[in-house]
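[job 4471] stage=fold_predict status=RUNNING
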Amino acid sequence: MDASLTDHPTTDAFLDTLRGRLGELVDDSSLTRGLYATDASNYRIVPQAVLTPRSKDDVIIAVGVARAHGVPVTVRGGGTSCAGNAVGHGLVIDFSRHMNRVLSVDADSSTAVVQPGTVLSTLQVAVLPHGLRFGPDPSTASRCTIGGMIGNNACGPHGLAYGRTADNVVSMTWLTGRGEVITAGSGQGALTAVPGLDSFVTENLAVLRTEFGRFGRQISGYSLEHLLPENGHHLAAALTGTEGSCGILLEATVRLVPRAPAPALAVLGYDDMAAAADDVPNLLPFDLLALEGLDAQLVDVVRRAHGDAGVPALPEGGGWLIAEVGGATSDEAVQAARRLVAASGSADAVVLPAGPEATRLWQIRADGAGLAGRTADGKQAWPGWEDSAVPPERLGDYLRGLEALMGEENVSGLAYGHFGDGCVHVRIDFPLDAGGTLMRRFLERAAALAAEHGGSLSGEHGDGRARSELLPAMYSPEALRAMEAFKALLDPDDIMNPGVVVRPAPLDADLRRPQARRVRATDGFAFAHDAGDITDALHRCVGVGKCRADLREQGGFMCPSYTATRDEKDSTRGRARALQEMLNGTVVAPSWSSPEVHDALDLCLSCKACANDCPTGIDMATFKSETLHQTYKGRLRPLSHYTLGRLPQWLRLAAPLAPLLNLAGRIPVLRRLMTAMMGADSRRSLPTLPRKPFRWSKPPRTAGERTGGPRVLLWVDSFSDAIAPDIPYDALEVLVAAGCDVEVAGPGACCGLTLVSTGQLTAAKAQLRRTLDLLVPHVREGRTVVGIEPSCIATLRSDLVELLPGDPRATELSRAVRTVAEFLTSIGWTPPQAAEKLLVQPHCHHYSVMGYGPDRALLEAMGCDVETSVGCCGLAGNFGMEKGHYEVSEKIARDGILAKASESPDRRILADGFSCRTQVRDLADLDSRHLVQVIAEALRRSTATGDAPL
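[job 4471] inference complete, writing structure tokens
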């Protein structure tokens, strides 16, 4: 049994009673307890059980059972709390799974009623048709919940214009620690909802007036100033920001505000962040919607990961202010932004109207927590002092003091935040692998520094376990006693999130990172970005939870399994947490073969979307492959590893038997038998094998009549060769038409993708070495390797160098491999006109590793009308074929590409990936084509009309 349960023993009676009342909503499995042992903070506390309630009554019952057994209760929304606000030793209640609906919207009163697990972006979508929005908007808006925002008194960039969450809450249905359900509102009689609260306010008038609510971002502690008569006796506002320590939100009525019609950005450049902060008071008189600070080094992180294309044009400087202003029209907003620039003290500036460039900049700002998870020199950086705030007029001096303190303690971090409100976010490279000593010393000194500037330990994240112990730095003993007395009125037995705010736990207790054993890369992947340290690589996941958001409408692919199941274990974060628990070894066994780890990884499609979409850059496909490799090396593997995992070899053997196998595949009984023998789902069909694979047709090893044209090596992968030979012929035709000197690679050059995805890394490395032998000599002769199958190209672009880091040829080949679109756009070829209406399904690896921009540009140059199906197709190589994965694979497809195809039946499907083409044919009997087929068909039409491209 793990240490946390030794300190806080689970009683069989508690769990038996809870399960008896609430059944399957209660989960005390080791995997689930491990997943909920941490949030987005530095802390790890294993709960006794997790509840995912469906109704208010479920919550009331659960709290009653917990009270009867003396078990503490912690509530959780999106699990994105940075200060350890949402972890606890007892029962954790997760509202996000079921209690996540917008119950009503009243446009006339500009209010909405929501359940606590409602994601902020869900509310924003619901009120958009009314021209309204919820004002506060943290950067985690796509996955944070209204309940979590109320728990922490969240603000976000637009808190400058619309206030804190406390300023936007009308009333709440609230469950106290006494087990009583109250209505928390404001106005005359509001305080009578809590017996003794009226007297408490009367007795503490002086301290409430002098120590609470001194400036807008004083979030640390309780916001007791709202209880004052001059502030309307606003109990709902006072309960906002109590971090689950005074009760549980069951339902909230929130205030909405008009949506700004046409915002524009003024991006102001300064020498450094402190100089930018000095200019804040000068800009606040303008009618600002937001005023954000951004360190230039954060943008450099994006450039290193995604190139210059991922960053909009920015002014010169070491730090920027991003000022958002509104207007009735776009022109009006732009003019307002230019007036602000003229009044600023910036050395350089750029004005961005609403549009793609502004959106990209906001996305960089929104990804700040993940991007700042590594310092400028690549060290792991942690929360703890990630949310301090001071009055804006003190911000410049405070930042200089903070920079000096970091220098004295030999730590660093990248600053950003809500500078218009004086709030600073910075993650710092504390050496937590060695313990919390330095972190404690730094936090104690930083708390004193913030207090010296009249500031707050927290500006919107709350105190949690990271800062509650430091509250005496900014509050008097009288104020601390007042907070303790307030909690006692609502939770006298201290079962609600104990250890937070009142009677705080030590800030260096229960730290997650020091408990993780060190694991180094051995004979699998190199994990070069983390210097071979798998423990550091796994801790790239800091819990920001972007993988829990459905970002397909914004162009994101992550995380297809979570969007299908809505289960935490099926998110990238959940899988990282399971692996981190393996490193801890107390709840999950310290072994790659741990059942909990394999359960969490089972529905991972290995799509690599997290490597691109997660701001931390974690690549779960790599971890799944490494886990399978370490688990099964030298042991009997699952059947599908020998069949689907070695599909290229089987395809070569099957070629002479193609007519017989095709016939068997059309007979249901024989097809089911064959799929069973493969370890595949019997509902899957088998691909129709061609009469002759490409390699049998003896295509010319060289092609192209023009001399001096770009030199190309056409690499025909195993799938294109054995299943779709028409595609390499069309690729050859296109490259010749583009004036290239083309040579076709000899057979045997395989990327080993199926071996990699099933964790057969020893065999994959051997295959990749053979491929290097075959392809690198051509590269050294000056040929660009042009591939056909995007997943195979991605393997040579990314996995190759990770699997063979000691072979310099791996880097040579990786840099020389291109997609057809990448190559054709790079040589400036004018493609033929097609004017087709296309529905494009980019392959996940194409999107994640190479990017789909060149393909989109090429199709636009051809005059195609393109609609993109964003997200995975759901087949993902062997994943969707394997037993146990069919339902999830099908749901992903039906919610994605098949839904799009149904909406646009007049569009022909373009899918470069063999898996994608297989999925739409298998589930919906839809035809699809590769990009080279679209171009080749257009070439033939243009030749027939005498309008061939040059």
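[job 4471] summary: The chain has 43 helices and 27 strands.
[job 4471] exit 0
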